[in-house]
């Protein structure tokens, strides 16, 4: 409800939101499925000029967030790389995020 009111009440056209996956809290498949459902439903209720940008959080894997955005399949959905979170992760390098996004752009 709050996001839907942003364009009308605050002249906001873009929001950045955490991808939200917590590795020890959710099964990856469940998280993927529920995220796609939620984002499609949210975008369906927003104007054509409103964008949602998903950003990584600590522990995220590049492919996980990118696959969600690709399955949502809406040009209003994008990705933002938070290099602070990416740099703080011991398991994923910042270059892994960049290379993952580059592969998607080429396909």
Total helical segments:
5
Tell the overall outline.
Answer: globular
Helix and strand element order: HEHEHEHH
Largest sheet: 3 strands, parallel
Q: Helix share of residues?
A: 40-55%
Strand order of the largest sheet: 1-2-3
Rounded to an integer, what's the Rg over CA atoms? Answer: 14 Å
Distance between the termini: 35 Å
Overall mean pLDDT stands at 80
Low-confidence stretches: none
Provide the β-strand percentage band: 5-15%
Which class of secondary structure composition applies to the elements? alpha/beta
Number of strands: 3
Topology (elements, then pairings):
Elements: H1 2-10, E1 14-18, H2 28-44, E2 51-55, H3 62-72, E3 77-80, H4 83-88, H5 94-106
Parallel strand pairs: 1-2, 2-3
Helix pairs in contact: 2-3
Describe what you observe in this structure.
With 107 residues, the protein is α/β, with parallel strands linked by helices. Helices cover 52% and strands 13% of the residues. It is built from five helices and three strands; from the N terminus they run αβαβαβαα. Strands 1-2-3 form a three-stranded parallel sheet, covered by helices on one side. Helix 2 (28-44) packs parallel to helix 3 (62-72). It is globular, with a radius of gyration of 14 Å.
Entry keywords:
alpha/beta, 107 residues, 3-stranded parallel β-sheet, globular
Structure summary:
The protein has about 110 residues and is α/β, with parallel strands linked by helices.
